[in-house]
Each structure stands twice: as C-alpha cells, then as structure tokens.
Amino acid sequence: MSDSKASADWFAKYLAGDQQARKEAPLARGLFGYFPNACLHVAHVSFVANAQHNPGLPMQWAFNKSSDESDCVLRHAIDAAGAAPFDDDGLLHLSKKAWRAMAELERYVLEHYPNAQRGASVTGFQRNSPPAVSLPPLVQANLLADLHANLDKLAVLP
Which of 41, 91, 104, 113 is the right S-S partner for 69, CB 3.0 to 4.6 Å? Predict the structure, then answer.
C-alpha cells in the first residue's frame, strides 16, 4: 500500500470514529503535549488576524480571501531569520509561518480528501461535499475525553 493510500485510509477511519485510528492521532499528547507554546502562538495569530480582517465578527478563516500559503511561509521564514523576529503587528514571524503552514495543510486535506469536512470556523470553502460542520459528535466526544484525560500533561511552564 502506498503511503498516500495508507494516509487516506487512516484519515477515513478517523473521521468515522474508528478507535485505533483515533489512538493514532493523540492530539493532547502528540500536538499540545509537544508544542503547547507554539499552539498558543498560532491561536493568537488567528485571534489577531480575525480582529484585523473580520472586525466584530466571530472567529472565522475566510478561506477564499488568500491562498498564497507557500509564499507566506517562505516570506515569514526569511523575515524570522532576519534581524527583526516580530512583524509590524507585534506577532512573531515564526507564529505566522506556522499558521500559514497549517493553513496550507488544511487546504490540501480539504481539496484532496473528499470526506474531509471543513472546520466550523472556515468560511468561503466550496466543494461538492457535505456542508460545513465541526467534527462528528463521536469524534468530538472522543477528542474531549482524550484531552481531559491528559490535561495534567499539558502544563505550560511560566
């Protein structure tokens, strides 16, 4: 089985609530446990960008407003390596680079995996697929249970 086929099969199983596939995506231990500070910075980029681009509106990624993630990742990488690690708005270029890399991955998954569903905060994505929803209820419940079971492992040092 090719790596892309294996990835697609795992993702389909995950979306269907498969217990083993769920265990192979440890969000609390494998994402927040590894990168708690980076996740906080990326979330703050989302907040600041939403206030700038969608003032007064709930959090939302206007999917169709910008699709130049690759260019932005490289630009922020270059800027971060320079003398000024912060962008004009006070955010770290590395934080913006990470946000753009995640956006590029999300865009790829949505465009190449027909069963992938966009997040509830994504607006403007068009595809002949089910309407926007958050994760299926079973997956949501499992993720929350995993997160709560591992909260003590997510301590962020001051």
Answer: 104
Beta pairing, strands 61-62 & 122-123: parallel
Cβ atoms within 10 A of the Cβ of 18, count? 15
- How many Å apart are CA 75 and CA 88, to the nearest integer? 14
What tens digit of pLDDT does each residue of 135-152 get? 556 665 666 666 666 655
The overall longest dimension of the chain from CA atoms, in Å, is 48
Helices (H), 33-156: 36-53, 69-81, 93-112, 137-149
DSSP state letter for 59 = S
pTM over cut 0.85: no
All structural domains of the chain with their residue ranges: 3-154
Whole-number Å distance between alpha carbons of 96 and 107: 16
Q: What share of the chain is helix, strand, coil (3-state, %, to 5)?
A: 60, 5, 40
